[in-house]
Amino acid sequence: MSSPWLAWPSGADPSALRRKLHAAHESFLSTGDAQVRPVVLESWRRSVRSGVDPSDPAAAPPRDVLAYREQHPLAAVMPVVRELLVSDAAEADLLVAVADDGGQLLWVEGEPGLRARAAEMSFVEGSVWSEERVGTNAPGTALALDHPVQIFAAEHFSQPVQAWSCSAAPVHDPATGRVLGVLDVTGGHHVAAPQALTLVRAAAAAAEAQLRLQQLEDRRRRPTMTVAGPARLRVLGEANGGRFRVNGTEHRLSLRHTELLLALAQNPAGLTGEQLAVALSDGESALVTIRAEMSRLRRLLGPGVLASRPYRLTTPVQTDLDELVRLLRRGAHRQALAHYRGPVLPRSDAPFVIAAREETRLRVRHALLRHAGVDVLLQYAETAEGQDDVEVWAACLLGLPIGSPRRARILAHLERLERRMS
Asked: Locate the OmpR/PhoB-type domain: which residues (predicted)?
């Protein structure tokens, strides 16, 4: 069985396949389904969800990337890329492109006439070729799936691009595993031959090896950095997003980024993109948006905090949820209640957060009902969670001596709860 990432197996008839793909593309636009490779069909569906117009994709106008690309990590591997791919590009009738992790083309090199033709579809330095912008294409799809892939002729979602074929492979940071960008070869149908993908994968591996050597050399030259205390994540009572302190800096996070960090903190061995998508249960965004959010989170937190394949935290993270559990286990109920600033991410509807929120509520309630003194239990009864809890108020009543003046208020509150429930 041929690889699902190859456009066509060795010995196939490209002309016949091209005609079949054109018919499949028309069928998909009419029915939403087609007989094509699963990797292509799923990419077409993501393209539709992103609002890409197959007849006229809304490509952003190219931006000047000269200064940006000079500072980009992939600038260090361009000599390797040129030696392995660009040096023979004109003779092989293909273009070589290098894009960042958002699909923005940083370098497009090759025969000038071919570059001029590619410019007609805005395949130029500074343009963005992510799936969200232009639909299915090798560099954009390779980034979306973090996997080498070929796209042949009408496998492109955008009809203006279907005269071309391409093979692309992502390039990763050897230290963290995060995607830095993608290498792509674009040209005629011969670029979708199996050996073309082998060539691009080899070039990507050579680029990563070059980065690894550079990092080792940089490490020798730099003194070892010390980490400023343990990383800490706050999620209790944080309605709009938590706070994350790492390497001496506190970051105010969005709700989605807090959910992702909490999931990774609870799973130190790491989670795949698919597992994170299930944990967050975001049907609209699914895997491609999880990867985009993780990329944004990595940029926010800086280098050395998040790794990928699988996604994981590179340092242990202490959460205020963990601290709450430790206080309850020690029997430090007054401290635990003071620490319990509210439910876990109260506005989150992620399934794993909902489960953690309910588990925490029950753990606090159970510990206080069974073991806490009446003063602490009364403090809990006054909280939003305890206000309507008949069992908690009844336990407070039982814990007070008969002559206590507080009994009258508790009795009155219990009567109001009973009337409300009747």
From this structure: 248-313
Q: Report which of 283, 24, 303, 259 is spatially closest to residue 136, judged by C-alpha positions.
A: 24
Condensed to tens digits (0 to 9), the pLDDT of residues 128-167 reads 999 988 999 999 999 988 899 999 999 999 999 999 999 9
CB contact at 8 A, 211 and 81: no
Tell me the HSE value of 382 on the side-chain side, using a 13 A CA sphere.
Answer: 9
Tokens at 292, concatenated: 């985009």
Q: Which residues of 391-401 are buried (b: 16+ CB within 10 A; e: fewer)?
A: ebbebbeeeee
How far is 282 from 352, CA to CA, in rounded Å? 12
Distance CA 103, CA 361 (A): 43
**Same domain for 293 and 253:** yes
User: Is residue 328 within 8 Å of 367, Cβ to Cβ?
Assistant: yes
Rounded Cα distance, 169 and 415, in Å: 69
Residues 288 and 353 in one domain: yes
For the cut 80, the answer to whether the pLDDT of residue 224 exceeds it is no
Note the pLDDT tens digit of each residue in 227-251.
Answer: 456 789 999 999 889 999 988 888 9
In whole angstroms, give the CA distance from residue 302 to residue 245: 12
pTM over 0.70: no
Q: How far is C-alpha 376 from the chain's CA centre?
A: 42
pLDDT score, position 225:
45
Contact 153, 162 (CB under 8 A): yes
Segment 338-347 mean pLDDT: 91
Asked whether residue 208 falls in the same domain as residue 172, the answer is: yes
Domain that holds residue 56: 14-221
Q: Is residue 388 part of a domain?
A: yes
Q: State whether residue 223 is helix, strand or coil.
A: coil
Question: Do 408 and 292 have their domain in common?
Answer: no
Q: What would the two tokens of residue 134 be?
A: 């232009």
Using DSSP bridges, classify how beta strands 312-313 and 306-307 pair: parallel, antiparallel or unpaired: antiparallel
Is residue 223 scored above 80 in pLDDT? no
Any domain includes 3: no
Among 188, 221, 254, give the residue marking a domain's end.
Answer: 221
Helix (H) or strand (E) segment spanning residue 319: strand 317-319
Instruction: Kindly state whether residues 158 and 196 are assigned to the same domain.
Output: yes
> What region does 153 belong to: left with phi over 0, alpha with psi -120 to 50, or beta?
left
